Amino acid sequence: MTDVIAGYWQERASSFHHAQAHTNWTLWHDIFAPYLNPNDRTVDLGCGTGFLSRALGQKHSPIGVDLTAGMLSFHPGPCLQADACALPLLSDSIDAIIGRNIAWTLPAAAWPEIARVLRPGAQLLLADGPWGCAPAPAGVAWREHYLSAYNEDTLNALPLARATSDTYAEFLCTFGFTDIAVRELTEVYDHELVHGTMPGHEPWRQFLITAVAPSNA
Description:
Strand order of the largest sheet: 3-2-1-4-5-7-6
Largest sheet: 7 strands, mixed
Distance between the termini: 26 Å
Structural class: alpha/beta
Number of domains: 1
CATH topology: Rossmann fold
CATH architecture: 3-Layer(aba) Sandwich
Strand content: 15-25%
Radius of gyration: 16 Å
Order of helices and strands: HHEHEHEEHEHHHEHE
Helix content: 25-40%
Number of helices: 9
């Protein structure tokens, strides 16, 4: 399953990167920056082409981690290629893990790794949505590849592919995370209604998930 998903995002890298012209970078900066300390060692998990690095700017400069070399070839900052299920990072070494549209496509095996590398009391900060429930992409060349990679069997195997706000909280609790909060990113949805979103997609509900890493991971 991981190889199939990685193959899809490898092929999508260029089109994904160049489809971000609609992005309101200030909007995304203001969603993430209040939670982050510039002196923290922050990892952007599933960083793709560096969306959050561009939004946050040099003040925060997260370390990007992604499974696909194609995505990382567009990344503007420090990054490394790695599988979220086997992160090449020391235990208790990271002050914050951030991510955008990555939780929905992570297998269950990634979450103990996330808990392992975060220091006790560190921040988990994710913007995501139930993309497994979203309408299939339309009018784009990569539609069939998407439907093949994210078929019903794949979506059923991904624990957060169709997550609700309650699902995120219950799921993270099982890995020892505390102080879990989920809020709907209405500002993103409203912006996309007016200005549009990435080709093939339509505005979709998204959440901001915050949590504190366990002390005994």
